[in-house]
């Protein structure tokens, strides 16, 4: 039988057979390769025992041979596949973890360990919420329980991780659930990409944009200073007039106390009006970080209407307001949205400055539009050249002698940072229409 045993396996076979002959063992089992007559190899599993000899017969080897070539081939294929997936798992450029139903990673790859600063061993003992930023942990956990309960079969989120050293890491995470034949969850696979650099760049960009928006706001305020001063002078003049009238009445032997009361009420109102203008102006001028709150677009429109009254009269522009009642609130930064409106309104008035032969009319309209609020600013000015249509929104593009060309570019980036869009179109008649949409804040709904 040695002749048909594959050369490499002969030594082991010989050693076991000798041990059997020497009585060191009763039998042996061996997995080895045999060579067929045609030269090909086959895997066999043999069980060999020794049948003692008698006087007339020699001792005999009794060999039970099982052809396990197929099994060996399947095992090899499986281990090759296992090695392939293991290499893929270990060398992947994304962090990967397999988690049990308690969210504990029972397998994790090198990349994930690098990203989080924990060893595989440390990760095994903690649920993923333990290395998630506390602010993002509840949302992640709730999605994970949706996976377990079968409400969804995967999810994808951007979340913050906490590394072992306490540092913050932004990750783009996709999680899948793997179920057995009966549909029971076996484990989840989470894949994380480190997007910290991208998030930092986004944040820096946002800060730079807010900075620029502030500079532009202050510049616009400078341009509006004269009309804002006038806006203030009006209530002040009324206050002085009412106070003088009251003083006069009080010198009379029978003072008109009702008249005095009325004048004082008007003085209080005008005082509030003046304070209001100052407060709005200050809001626009001070530098604050953008703050998104639930607000009504109509209120923002009214904010700026309060500031532009004099500007409108000075330019002989009539303003028409068409505000939809019962609009859903949006999530926005009040000052930035005021800025967008002021930019559009000032542009509209400037476009009408050269128009002498027709009424100068500015329309501001708000309306509902499928999950969004739409704001329209329409003028009857010079209109837009089709070839300038897109360049208008570029930074520093201006057709005005003293223009900065930043108004529309800043307005667009503000609206886009709010998840909306800003665009322009020519009117059927003279003039241009600028519109922006903002998504309504559905989360706040009961
Ligand atoms: N309502 C409008 N009608 C016609 N053209 C407009 C209107 N608004 C803006 N534009 C054009 O777009 C250009 C850029 O506007 P903007 O970014 O606000 O900068 P600026 O007002 O400083 O020129 C303007 O110079 C003008 O040519
Ligand atoms: Mg402008």
Could you please describe the fold and organization of this structure?
With 446 residues, the chain is of the alpha+beta class. The protein folds into 3 domains: 7-74, Beta-Lactamase (2-Layer Sandwich); 92-194, PAS domain (Beta-Lactamase, 2-Layer Sandwich); 201-439, Heat Shock Protein 90 (2-Layer Sandwich), CATH 3.30.565. The chain is 44% helix and 25% strand. The chain is built from 10 helices and 15 strands. Strands 5-4-8-7-6 form a 5-stranded antiparallel β-sheet. A 5-stranded mixed β-sheet has the order 10-12-13-15-14. Strand 12 (361-369) and strand 13 form a beta hairpin. Helix 6 packs across helix 8. The protein is elongated. The structure holds adenosine-5'-diphosphate (ADP) and magnesium ion. Residues 343, 347-348, 351, 379, 381-384, 392, 397-400, 403-409, 432 line the site of adenosine-5'-diphosphate.
| Structure classification | alpha+beta
Query: Could you name the CATH topology of the largest domain?
Result: Heat Shock Protein 90
Query: Oligomer, anyone?
Result: single chain
Ligand kinds: adenosine-5'-diphosphate, magnesium ion
Assigned CATH class of the largest domain:
Alpha Beta
Radius of gyration, in Å, reads: 41 Å
Helix content: 40-55%
Summarize the SSE layout with pairings.
Blueprint: H1 7-21, E1 27-35, E2 41-51, E3 60-67, H2 69-91, E4 95-99, E5 105-108, H3 110-116, H4 120-124, H5 137-149, E6 154-162, E7 168-179, E8 185-194, H6 196-251, H7 257-285, E9 293-295, H8 297-314, E10 318-323, E11 330-332, H9 334-352, E12 361-369, E13 372-378, H10 407-417, E14 421-426, E15 432-439
Parallel strand pairs: 10-12
Antiparallel strand pairs: 1-2, 2-3, 4-5, 4-8, 6-7, 7-8, 9-11, 12-13, 13-15, 14-15
Bound molecules: adenosine-5'-diphosphate and magnesium ion (MG).
Adenosine-5'-diphosphate binds at residues 343, 347-348, 351, 379, 381-384, 392, 397-400, 403-409, 432.
